[in-house]
Recover the amino acids of this structure.
């Protein structure tokens, strides 16, 4: 896979995860109204919990599980094909598959934390309408 293909897959994956993890607008407004005088850490935790535990996030978890399964079965199919048709000694792609799956898990966690951080900053930031 070339760098451009990986980049396109990351953009699509990030867009879908962002869409599924960010709650609907009316849920966001209710949370923002009740969190005007709280600390940054409290607001961040509340946004993180709201992102993780709402109905639309179920599709993000399904996408995440589907992605991990596709990675595992893709590397497994590559290993089976290579071992069956190459004529060379057998190989194992388990480490590579686990490495890519680990990177996907880390990327998903960082994406989730980044989305919660963005929502927290937008909630706490004072609204200047005179600009």
């Amino acid at each position: 896979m070339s760098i451009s293909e990986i980049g396109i897959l990351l953009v699509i994956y990030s867009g879908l995860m962002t869409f599924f993890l960010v709650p609907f607008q009316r849920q966001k407004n209710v949370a923002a109204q009740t969190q005007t005088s709280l600390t940054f850490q409290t607001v961040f935790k509340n946004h993180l919990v709201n992102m993780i535990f709402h109905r639309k996030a179920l599709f993000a978890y399904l996408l995440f599980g589907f992605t991990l399964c596709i990675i595992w079965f893709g590397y497994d199919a590559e290993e089976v094909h290579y071992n069956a048709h190459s004529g060379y000694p057998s190989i194992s792609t388990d480490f590579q598959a686990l490495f890519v799956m680990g990177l996907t898990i880390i990327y998903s966690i960082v994406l989730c934390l980044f989305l919660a951080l963005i929502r927290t900053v937008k909630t706490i930031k004072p609204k200047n309408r005179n600009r």
Q: What stands out?
A: The chain has a mean pLDDT of 86. Residues 67 and 79 are 18 Å apart (CA to CA). Helices lie at 3-21, 25-34, 40-52, 57-85, 94-124.
